[in-house]
Amino acid sequence: MPRMVEVVIDSVRVSLTNQQRIVVLRELNTDRYLPIWIGPYEAEAITIALQEIEVARPQTHDLLKNILTNLDAQLVRVEVLSLREDVFYGNLVVEVNGQTVNIDSRPSDALALAVRAHVPILIAREVMDAAGVIPEQDIEPTESKPAPSAPAEPESEGEGEDRLSIFEDFLSNINMDDLTQPSDDEDDEEKPDEGGPEPEK
């Protein structure tokens, strides 16, 4: 098992330029952040749970949580285990009948479940080292620039600056208020995976 660091959900935000959503994870006891692009439906699901908004009927992630509960299975934690070709890969760790079961999951779905079940969120250290940023130290105001593809693994010196420019470009076009209402983008297609700082084409 890779070395892990625990994070919390800092915020769910929306870009002013293209209305794409991003969930920002913050490493515990530090100011290092991990931004992950997510779909509008997953952003809505995470926001509803964070703000404890009551809904008339169970949403998809409520249903998944209820299924686990009724099957006497316990969600122990959720994980982001790897970053390959700008796509994050998640995992649900579930205990059932005294056994630990790992279930492949998109990070956005894993996070939506984590906030409902109140379980820890863990990130592989190599993922945090590759894609995490420290805005206070590393980002200075500059003009927005086109976002290049984010490296999937730590690279040589200088590659970090490219990765930070991606996050800087997002911050320069961001609505700094957290999402407070469900998304209106009903006709958006659900994304199959989350990309790194560069959204999936």
UniProtKB/TrEMBL annotation:
GO terms for molecular function: nuclease activity. It comes from the Bacteria. Residues 4-135 form the BFN domain. Residues 172-182 have a biased composition (Polar residues). Residues 144-153 have a biased composition (Low complexity). Residues 137-201 are annotated as: Disordered. Residues 183-201 have a biased composition (Acidic residues). SUPFAM superfamilies: Hypothetical protein TM0160. This is Uncharacterized conserved protein. The lineage of its organism: Bacteria, Bacillati, Chloroflexota, Anaerolineae, Anaerolineales.
